[in-house]
Inverse folding.
């Protein structure tokens, strides 16, 4: 996935036609679309294939299971053209390794270190550095760290070196794209602020412009 704008669209729109229209109109201003269960449940898994024909797709299924189930999910995502799959690190090294092995170099595995919502402070924040180490030691190429708490991005960066950080929470959750990049993120993940707007392309372009001197 080539980093051009540093913006990833979290496409949690549940209307399939609108989702495809938004993805197409914002494509010049983003580097990837992150697809989660809300859209897959309304449109079916074929939506992964359809979006992959337009841009890079990150399957944000936050996979958290035993190694064999993790393998099956990752293989399914890769077979449909996903460029990356987001996997929870708290399930341990064997499940993380299963994800990386299943991706087989055809897609990146992105490990969750800390969730961006307030509840993320209850558990994930306390163990984020350890969770990052699970990803590093088992071959994850990317890591999720919250734009809502830029200091936590910096903490994860110290653990993972020059590997990739993607930061959710920009926009509706209150995170700043610029602050996240300055703290060490490579990409910011933006959802409702873009797809819920009357002008998705305009919002996506403005966010890309706000960080273009940092990307």
């Amino acid at each position: 996935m080539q980093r051009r704008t540093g913006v990833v669209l979290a496409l949690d729109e549940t209307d399939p036609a609108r989702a495809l229209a938004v993805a197409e109109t914002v494509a010049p201003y983003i580097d990837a679309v992150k697809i989660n269960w809300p859209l897959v449940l309304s449109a079916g898994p074929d939506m992964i294939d359809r979006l992959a024909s337009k841009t890079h797709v990150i399957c944000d299924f936050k996979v958290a299971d035993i190694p064999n189930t993790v393998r099956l999910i990752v293989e399914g995502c890769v077979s449909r053209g996903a460029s990356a799959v987001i996997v929870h690190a708290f399930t341990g090294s064997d499940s993380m390794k299963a994800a990386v092995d299943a991706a087989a170099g055809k897609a990146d595995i992105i490990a969750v270190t800390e969730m961006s919502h307030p509840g993320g402070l209850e558990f994930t924040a306390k163990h984020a550095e350890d969770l990052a180490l699970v990803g590093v030691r088992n071959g994850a190429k990317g890591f999720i760290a919250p734009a809502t708490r830029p200091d936590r991005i910096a903490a994860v960066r110290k653990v993972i070196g020059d590997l990739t950080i993607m930061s959710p929470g920009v926009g509706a959750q209150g995170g700043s794209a610029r602050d996240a990049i300055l703290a060490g993120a490579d990409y910011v993940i933006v959802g409702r602020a873009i797809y819920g707007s009357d002008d998705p392309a305009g919002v996506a372009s403005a966010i890309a412009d706000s960080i273009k001197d940092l990307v």
